[in-house]
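Record pair follows.
FIRST:
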Amino acid sequence: MDPPAWCQCHLCGVLRLGRSCQHGRVNTRIRARAHEQIARLADARLDLETLVRESSRVLAKALPRDAACWHAVDPATLVETTAFRQDVPTPDADVAEIAFLSGDYNSFVKLASGKRHSGVLSEATGGKLDRSTRYRELLRPENMLGELRVSFVVEGVPWGCVSFFREAPHDFCAADRDFAHDLASLLGRGFRAAGTHAKAPGPGTAPGMVLMDARRRVESVTEPARTWLEELGGPHHDQVPFVLLSVAERVRATGTEASARVLSDAGRWMQLHASPASGEPGRVAIILQAAPAPSIAPLISATYGLTARERELTGLVLKGCKTSEIAERLYISPHTVQGHLKAIFAKTGVRSRRELVARLSPLA
């Protein structure tokens, strides 16, 4: 059994052992309503920016904080691909290097794979915040004492994450942590569903390359890469898109290749592949291109909330397999295939196989 936790109310500053103040009792009702509202938002298939904005509004009273930073992640590689900042500085390469250290406390990777998908930094460090590089280098200089991190996990797969911050002397408590964990799968559903807003690809754009030097600055950009950078919101050398910083830091941290899929501002699925470059240690080459169909088809299917079996069956439909072929490959009856197709049609909003192929294939 966990030891009793000290809970500090962010509204009045009261510190109590194992129980909350009067505001805490009010928050029980507020949080119940917030949980219901977040559940509705999760099923509304909103785009990411709207989802983050509305979720932040709902949580303003239920989980008070002074700043926050939300991220979408590639569920296959766990690379953070998008940043939505709320009263925090624009993340640069130095921030990316420190904020996502896998060896620091409450890394998003560890939270995603753990039984509890939320964590308070002061609790993880045993009350000794200076143990955390992230606290020493990023939070303390900004007078931030409290940090609550949440990984948005659905069916064991992470789709996003968030860091909430409170200025000193306020911190987060066990009740905050547990409430955030209860929201993790709901927000994961919302982040996952945001992929349904992907658009069909436009005119073909050739792959491009960005070379980043050992000092984490853009060294060179090929002409096709400029088009891709514009879709990521960073056409200039001094505006490096967040996902580039993420994949580059993953390469520097591991010494191996890294990749990520990201939904661009234009609504196209893109793939970034980063690898160590020759020359001075720390240089990274990043290829930007349209995400190939094989890598996106499972992702698109997942955004509609299809089960593993439904995704498997959908993949066979996209390959042109007939009902009898699908039944034979999956060792199920044709009647069961039709039952799965009915469920798939309902989730994706189509009425036939042809519409299903049209709905999923262009997005890849």
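SECOND:
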Amino acid sequence: MGIKIVFLTTILAAAAVISCISTPDPKKPEPVTHTDRESQPVVSHTPAETFNPIVVTSEYHSSIRAEVQQFIENLNQQIRRKNYTAWKAALSPEYFEEVSSSEHLSALSESPALTTRKIVLRTPQDYFEHVVVPSRANLHVDDIEFVSLTRVKAFSITKNRAGEEVRLRLYDLEKINNTWTIIN
């Protein structure tokens, strides 16, 4: 009889845990989804901390990865052409302000890569010419990680000297008005 009670108690406890897992948390807002012109779900006004990556289907993941890869390839072409205006247009206003700040420019100017070449960054265009062009012109996106259905982190996967795969985060992107924008 004691074993039956322990068994029954275990079953009831497991059922309670499972029912809690499947019940939405009333404190967290559910994502509001709609469909854009390409019939893909998009989340509106959903805080990133409530995002559940399980809602991303493999088809949606593949579609967004292809979009991001195309965006980065187009951006790389503009960077290789040293098109400052196109690069600037790909950045969110907040991110452009961050990379343009005198604190950011002076901190980068003190990096060994720039001090050995005696480069001092004074303007965002200096940053573009001396940092972005040499380091970002030939990047490729191998994977993305969803922060929300409209925000992703883009990664390049390379191998280190030991032959181990290393994920390098290239950009944080957000789809704003159906256009990918670099936010960090």
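COMMENT: The beta strands are 32-35, 41-44, 143-148, 151-159, 165-176, 179-182.
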